[in-house]
Design goal:
The complex is a heterodimer of chains A (294) and B (550). By secondary structure, chain A is of the alpha+beta class. Helix content of chain A is 72%, strand content 10%. Chain A has helices spanning 2-17, 19-39, 47-50, 64-74, 102-113, 129-158, 161-184, 191-216, 223-252, 257-293; strands spanning 44-45, 52-57, 79-84, 91-98, 122-127, 188-189. In chain A, helix 6 (129-158) packs antiparallel against helix 7 and helix 6 runs parallel beside helix 8. Chain B contains 15 helices and 20 strands. Classes of the chains: A alpha+beta (294), B alpha+beta (550).
Chain lengths: 294, 550
Amino acid sequence: MEEQNSKNWYDKSHKIMLIIPLVLFLFSIIYLYNFNEKNGDIIHKDVSLTGGTTIAVFDGSVDIDKLTKTLKEQLPDLNIRVISDILTGKQKGFFITTKEDANKTKSALEKDLGYALTTENSSVEFSSSTLSAGFYQQLKYAILLSFIFMALVVFVIFRTPAPSGAVILCALADIIMTIATVNLIGMHLSSAGIIAFLMLIGYSVDTDILLTTRLIKKHEGSINHRVFDAFKTGITMTLTSIAAVSVSLIAIYSLSETLRQIFTILLIGLGFDIINTWITNASLLKWYMEAKNK
Amino acid sequence: MKLTFRMWLLGIAIILSLLMIINSTPYLKLLIMLLLLGSMFSIHYSTSRKKALFLSILMIIAAGVVIAYSFQSGALIKSVGKDSAAFSEGLRAGEILTFVNEHPIKSKEDYAQVMSGITFAENEIKKITIKTEKNEYILFANETPDIIVDNIHKTRIQTGLDLRGGARALVQPDITIDDTGMADLIQISRNRFNVYGLSDVQINAVKDLSGNRFMLVEVAGATPNDLEELISKQGKFEAKVGNVSVFEGGKKDISSVCRNDASCSGIYSCSANQEGGFFCNFRFTIYLTEEAAKRHAEVTKDIPADDTTGRYLRDKLYLYVDDNEVDSLLISLDLKGQVTTQISIQGSGSGKTNEDAFNAAKASMNKLQTILITGSLPYKLSIVKLDTISPSLGKDFTFLILLAGGIAIVLVSIIIFFKYRKVKASLALLLTSFSELIIILGVASFIRWNLDLPSIAGILATIGTGVDSQIVILDEAEKKSSTMSLKDKIKIAIFIIITAYATNVVSLIPLYWAGAGLFKGFAITTIIGVTAGVFISRPAFADIIKRLQE
């Protein structure tokens, strides 16, 4: 009886529920448009995309506040972050990032620290601004290509335009909402962060394909029943992914900027994917199936 | 308990991958393979389930014991100083050190400890006995042997620079060059690294999506301080008599160099020397330009013949690369003061055996020819990316990644178990994910792919999608249906998985070129993983689930 009620409820409200993703989507688009007007790009880029230097120093005894103060005089755009031990929380070292080149950054840091930086006590990563700008262009291009390839495969396999369009729309919504959120939390994207969006394309399409196949290819049970069945499977998939990503994120939180960004973006994206698959895609498909059956 | 074809396929894929991963001798590998295959056969052919389980577990344990035993003990010799006593005694990189002066060596730490115990007073000569798996070497030395050792790797998995430590430089010429130009650049750079004595260097040409060409230089381990200079220096070749420059490398002074032509280039004699080794001589002809030939005549015309043989001039022709002397040649008397465009460059190589000497001579001939042909680079290079990564970071990383992986697996299994409440199905799911991990690592070891951070992110993504696919299979099979058979349901599941696979793979393809290929690892591990998953492990998992349902 209860299930019956919930199904009736779903029949009535599935179109109304579309408002939630629609509002989120529109908000993200408007936000990104304004962001682009203000900052000249739709994301904040870190030094791996603008050019600059990252230095990690493995020294637990440095007073970070003091160092930040003195270093800022020479490197005004300085960013500093502590590396701490995952188990004890004790400081193990720190990262600095700046748009300056490696030699200038290194000598400024060496002067303040009072000792030379060697490969034993530090890691230095430098990218020139022209190379980074090229990387950024190409990674954007790669994302676009990936998206188009993915869309083509979806069209070829499902052959019907409306459901295929819904899958692609959901993947697009996932990406746009995630970019907006990443900007809102002030994250500066690195090249690895952009790769995370590629991973997101793969992950988000998985559940959409599951849902679409269960609805289109199977003819057993009511549409509501099929949606609900797919939901049970899909949500398990997403939850296991979220669990695995969260744990990984905690483990590498302070040590690797690269993996930290990848996992954070995946986590945000997977969250939006729940909304976009089970509200956007499910409602659109139900709408389409019912319209077709009439 | 007959195994299906797909199960056999998965089993064999796992066994082959394991053999790829472990670093062991061929015989032991064969033994491990037979034991693991044996365990599969015993499951396949035994009549009772208990017997099958007992036999197969026994064989798997035996294989484990062999694997543990096969990890060699000792320390791997990574390099031996070319001018050291150890080198002239015949000790070479690649041998496995087991004893120093009767102290057993099991790790590089052991070696460091034993060596720090041997101290030298001024002018004191000590006898040091070095035993390797192949041989015993007795050195009489007045200093610590010039040897670098490392621990023996238990696996053949290679980690990338961002985990292992090292330096990576992306170098871009200031002008546009084509494929052959890039090949020349790499050849010159490689030569240069050899001259400077850096051996663990990989140089590759990379091209990005916009068609830019780069030279990617990767140096493993400790980074020399002058790396930047080393990479971006132009590479100047000069031949001098005394202090006077006679000719330089490249087109300006050298019109052509004979190579790969037996009539004017080759190794012409090999013989034994007094110390029991061998040496071989090489000779090749170069053709100087008119201008350089005149200079040669001018410089040599006043040099007297040497006193001992009288066949050569007293001063030699010295060859320099970036102002470091690399070779010196005798100038034969009949060339004195002659405007000759044809010059025979000679040299030799030595080695312990005739073959070693031949190869050494051939190598140094090739090196010289390359320098003479290509000369110094006609363009400047700029380092557009330079990363030096400390080895100490890598250890923390490896630990944390294993920690994260371990906890993630436990968490996922808890979720799966609570969802399905079926121990066997949940276990099968975990084992399948684990098998995908082994296959990725096996293939990566086989193609000698260096696992860097993007590759690890790729492995995580694969395991994630792998678990997802198996959940799809499990759920399809679980569902009660009046009209569809189990087989049809599995078919639907496989359709979903293959579609997801296709979208996944095509979306990764652009990454192969984007960003000068530095993110290739992500695409490679993911494609290996999902491909193995879709064609090997996930179908086998479907069979296991069918078997459990029946």
